[in-house]
Amino acid sequence: MASIEGRYTNASNIKVGIVVARFNDLITSKLLSGCVDCLSRHGVDTSDLSSQLDIVWVPGSLELPLVCQTLARASKYDVLISLGAVIRGDTPHFDVVIGETSKGIASVSRDSGLPIIFGVLTTDTMQQALERAGIKSNLGWTYALQALEMASLMKEINS
Ligand code: INI
Q: What is the count of structural domains for the chain?
């Protein structure tokens, strides 16, 4: 029997791409800083000259799938993290934005075989989003941990 699982160590040899939406930048920039902090504390070089981390900004969550697909096709990354914030109170087409974004990212991940962490916060209010982006905890940290685990797991399975 093989028991296979991802590890959080050896992060110094993985390449991470983060795609982050500017829409609701107050939230997404906090998710991004939580993400980068977690990656850095696990050994990923997050300096400006790093060859381990690229950060790509897009206008809104609806653009995340296309840019994730483009990065996946570049075959440079072990894992991608998509970051966005869709807040129900602020948009009548909330369901369209979150539905298309989540389906798009899942489809790119399956089609490319590259793990893509779904870090798009979906909340009813800005207050709830703020609580998940730093006031209480920062889910950006959790998304980065999940990215490290999945990058490691896929390497293990494919080795
Ligand atoms: N994009 C978001 O990331 N979050 C939102 O809540 C949102 N709202 O409210 O509409 C949003 N819209 C922009 C959308 O993602 C695209 O950038 C835009 O439609 C251009 O294609």
A: 1
Q: Name the residue among 42, 11, 6, 3 with its Cα closest to residue 156.
A: 6
pTM for the predicted model, two decimal places: 0.96
Q: What is the pLDDT of residues 52-81, one digit of tens each?
A: 999 999 999 999 999 999 999 999 999 999
CATH number for 43: 3.40.50.960
pLDDT at 92: 75
In a domain, 4, yes or no: no
Q: Is residue 17 part of a domain?
A: no
Residues with CB under 6 A from ligand 1: 21, 23-24, 59-63, 84-87, 90-91, 97
Average pLDDT, the chain: 95
42 is catalytic: no
Q: Looking at the domain assignment, is residue 64 inside a domain?
A: yes
